Amino acid sequence: MTNILDDEQRLIRAHVSLTQQIDRGSVVLSAQLVEAFLNIPRHPFVPVFYRREGERFLPWRITDGDGEAWFDAVYTDDSLLTEVNGVHAERADPGGVTGVPTSSSTAPSLMADMLDALDVNEGDEVYEAGAGSGYNAAMLCHLAGDKHVTTVDRSETLSALARERLNGLGFYPLVLHGDGARDVPSAATYDRIIATASVRRVPPLWLERCRTGGILVVPVKGTLAGGMIARLTKLPDGTAVGRILHTPAAFMPLKSGDEDEAQVPEIRDCPCRDAELSGRVLDDWTFSFFAQLHMPHGLIRTYGRSDGGLHVTTLYDPADGSAARVEDTPEGTSRVMYNGPRDLWAPMEAAHQLWRRLNRPRREWFSIEVTPAEQTVTYTEPNGQIHRWTR
Ligand SMILES: C[S@@+](CC[C@H](N)C(=O)[O-])C[C@H]1O[C@@H](n2cnc3c(N)ncnc32)[C@H](O)[C@@H]1O
C-alpha cells in the first residue's frame, strides 16, 4: 500500500484537492499560498498520527491496514493529532494511549488563514512558536526562504522530528528545542512572528523582538472554548495594534515552565440559586469568546454530565478560590451552586446580557492593543460607545 506515496499523479491530485478544500471554505487563498499548498506535501510531516477509538488514541501508519483511508485523512482539511500526554504517535504502543492531546498538525485551512494574515514576503525574518510536525514551518520556508525561518517547540522529540522532516524536503531553517515564549534567540529580531499554540497574553518578549512595522499572528485563549487569533502590527512606540481574525480557533496552550493546572475543588453543600443560563451557553463560540473577556485571567472551566446525565459546567478561579457548579435540571431549568468569595456565574450572566444587547457581536469586529504591560480588547458600538477589556 506504500506505493500510493510513489504515485506522482495521485499525490498531485491530493495536493490539488486539499488546496481546493481550503479555498472552498472561508479562506480565499492568495497566489503565493496556492503555490505553497500545491507544492509542499503534508504526508512527510505526519507519517504516524493518532486516530481516536472511544477513549483511546491509536497510532496510525500507512502500513496499518487501510492505506487509502490513511492517505485521504492526511489530505483532508482536518487537524491530525501527533502527540498525547507527551507521547508521540511514532513512539506509542500499537494498543494506543489515553490522555490529553499535546501536539497536532493544524487543520490546513486554519494554517492558511493565519499565514494569509501573517503576509510573509521573501526574505522576511520569521519566528514560529510551536514547530509541531514542521508542516507550517515548511510553508514559512517556502514563503520567506528557509534561511530566514526559526521555529521552536518545547518538545525535544517534536523539534528533532520536525528538523529531520524539513531537511528531508530540502529546507534548513533554524529548528530549536525550548520555550517559544522565552527562548527567542538572543538579539534576534523578526519581521513576522506566529504562534501555533495559544497564550493568555501576548508575551512581552515577542513584542520586543518584532521589528517596527512587523506583524504578529497569535492565538489568544483562556479555558473557555472560544479562542481568538490576534493579528497585530508593531508600532514605533513599542506597542502593537490590530484586529481579531474571523476564524474561531482552539489551539493547545503554549506551556511555559512546569506549571500544573490547579484542580477544581468539589462544590457541594454551598449556597444555591436558580441560574439564568445553562452552562451549555459556552458551547456557542461567539459567546464564549466574548465571555472570556469578562472572566478572570486564570479561570478554569470543566464540563460533563451529572449522575442523572444532565449537563454540568464548573468554573474555578485559583486566584481567589471562587468556584461555581452550574447544573441543568430535569425540568429544563438550571441551578448554580457557588463557593468562595464570589458567585462566578453572575459575571457570565451579565456578559450574556451585554452580548445580547450588543446584538451578538462577531469576533472580527473587535480590535486589540498590546503593550509590554497589558493587553486590551476593544469593541465600538455603531453609536460610538466604546467597550474595553484590559488584562
Ligand atoms: C498545534 S501544535 C503546532 C502545529 C505545528 N505548527 C504544525 O504545523 O504541525 C502546538 C505545538 O506547540 C508546542 N508548544 C507548547 N508549548 C510550547 C512552548 N512553550 N514553546 C514552544 N512550543 C510549545 C507543542 O509541543 C505543540 O507541538
What does this structure look like?
The protein is globular. It has 2 domains: 2-91 and 102-244, Vaccinia Virus protein VP39 (Rossmann fold); 272-357, Double Stranded RNA Binding Domain (2-Layer Sandwich). It is built from 9 helices and 20 strands. The model has no long low-confidence stretch (mean pLDDT 94). The protein has a 10-stranded mixed sheet with strand order 8-7-6-9-10-11-12-18-19-20, sandwiched between helices. The longest helix is centred in the first third of the chain and has 17 residues, at 8-24. A hairpin with a 2-residue loop joins strand 1 (48-53) and strand 2 (56-61). Helices cover 25% and strands 29% of the residues. It is α+β, with helices and mostly antiparallel strands and 391 residues long. It has helices at 8-24, 31-39, 67-74, 108-118, 135-144, 156-168, 204-209, 285-294, 345-357; strands at residues 48-53, 56-61, 80-84, 87-88, 101-105, 126-129, 149-153, 174-177, 190-195, 210-220, 228-234, 240-244, 272-275, 300-305, 311-317, 322-328, 334-339, 366-370, 375-380, 386-390. Residues 102-106, 129-130, 132-133, 135-136, 152-155, 158, 179-181, 196-197, 251-252, 254-256 line the site of S-adenosylmethionine.
The CATH homologous superfamily of the largest domain: Vaccinia Virus protein VP39
Output the structural class: alpha+beta
> Which word captures the global form?
globular
- pLDDT below 50 for ≥5 consecutive residues: which ranges? none
Percent range for helical residues? 10-25%
Taken together, the total number of domains comes to 2
Overall residue-averaged pLDDT value:
94
